[in-house]
Amino acid sequence: MVCGKNCFTMWMNRKTDRIFLKTLNYVLNVLKFSPSTNVRTQSTRKPGPPRLSWRLLFFGTDQFAVESLKLLNLCRNSNEGIVEKLEVVTLPGDLPVKRFAQQNQLALHNWPPHIVEGQFDVGVVVSFGRLLHRGLIDKFPFGILNVHPSLLPRWRGPAPVFHTVMHGDTVTGVTVIQILPNKFDVGPILNQEIHQVPKNCTAEDLGAALATKGAHLLLNTLMKLPEKIANKREQELKGVTFAPKINTSMSWINWEEQTCDQIACLCRAIGSRIPLRTVWMGKTIKLLDFVGKCYTSDERNPGSVYYDKDSNTLAVCCKDGWVAFRTVLLNKRLTAADFYNGYLNQTVKKNTSSKPAEGQFVSKKGRTEELQTNTWRGQKKQ
């Protein structure tokens, strides 16, 4: 009986030693990255006991989110000890995040998730598109993190990458923030990294680069999470811009107001998803296979179009020069030569001074006002 009691006491001592060593290693690991030993937590919630590795619940949908989930899953399967547990929340449908979770045997939760307090340490949101309420956030002792592909507060909203390219930004980045209840993209900043936008970069190329950078910035944040929370900073009130979802209204070219560079940026931003549009003889025409700026000494009215035989393109006059396209879609797909022979040449022959709009691409009326209204509505949501 005495032997049994002594054995139990020795077992308890060894268990206590293991807990002490785990906590000590965690503290030493944090202090290794911290500029000061005075690490404090400014969270309104009381964090649970320190952990060497995190129990994570991941919220995501698209391919951008998969990059972060993929890196977290690699950490879960490694000996680095950063991720102890990883489960996934996604939305209905055949989504990239759901496919990745199923292929890698990660537990899946439907939205909204029904989780018990104490199951997870921290949540991670990447490209999820749903507001999170306080009751859910409070289930995570260290809150819920969000990876956002811009230098917040610039380009808050669902389409920051597209607007970065559309507006010709030369510098962007990724930001990790803490989620605030029932709000998008306004939480305090925990980590941020700058990214130079390559010249002539498309939204797809930039999104892929930022997805990779965002995944590594998330991992860096998790490695130093107590320190990052202690040193979080609120977003500035100045410099806030909104990035609404891309839609067809953005694809209409205004030849009188847009420059060659602006049209090029618009094409690189949305052209692969939504073709650029204009009006030809009262009909919508889609402009495909954008070539870029072309050089001519001709001075004509914005919207004027001619066929350049040498390059086999349609050249269109805009605010400060000419841009060219190889293909158009009008009832069916037409090469520049097809459009010239079947439509443009015939129209020019019939053209008289009383019909100056014929032989020209015409800007859709009300497009500018529509875009301004959409942007204003998006700002009001914030």
Automatic annotation (TrEMBL):
UniProt entry keywords in alphabetical sequence: Mitochondrion, Protein biosynthesis, Transferase, Transit peptide
Keyword field contains NAD: no
Example of a GO MF term: methionyl-tRNA formyltransferase activity
Assigned EC number: 2.1.2.9
Gene Ontology CC annotations of this record: mitochondrion
Start and end residues of each stretch annotated as Disordered: 354-382
One Pfam family here: Formyl_trans_N
Catalytic activity annotation: L-methionyl-tRNA(fMet) + (6R)-10-formyltetrahydrofolate = N-formyl-L-methionyl-tRNA(fMet) + (6S)-5,6,7,8-tetrahydrofolate + H(+)
Transmembrane segments: none
Chief site of localization: mitochondrion
Gene3D superfamilies found in the cross-reference section: 3.40.50.12230
The Formyl transferase C-terminal domain, residue ranges: 245-343
Localization of this protein: Mitochondrion
Domain Formyl transferase N-terminal: 114-221
Biased composition (Polar residues): 371-382
Alphabetical list of NCBIfam families matching this protein: fmt (TIGR00460)
Function in brief: Methionyl-tRNA formyltransferase that formylates methionyl-tRNA in mitochondria and is crucial for translation initiation.
Family recorded in the similarity comment: Belongs to the Fmt family.
Name under which the protein is recorded: Methionyl-tRNA formyltransferase, mitochondrial
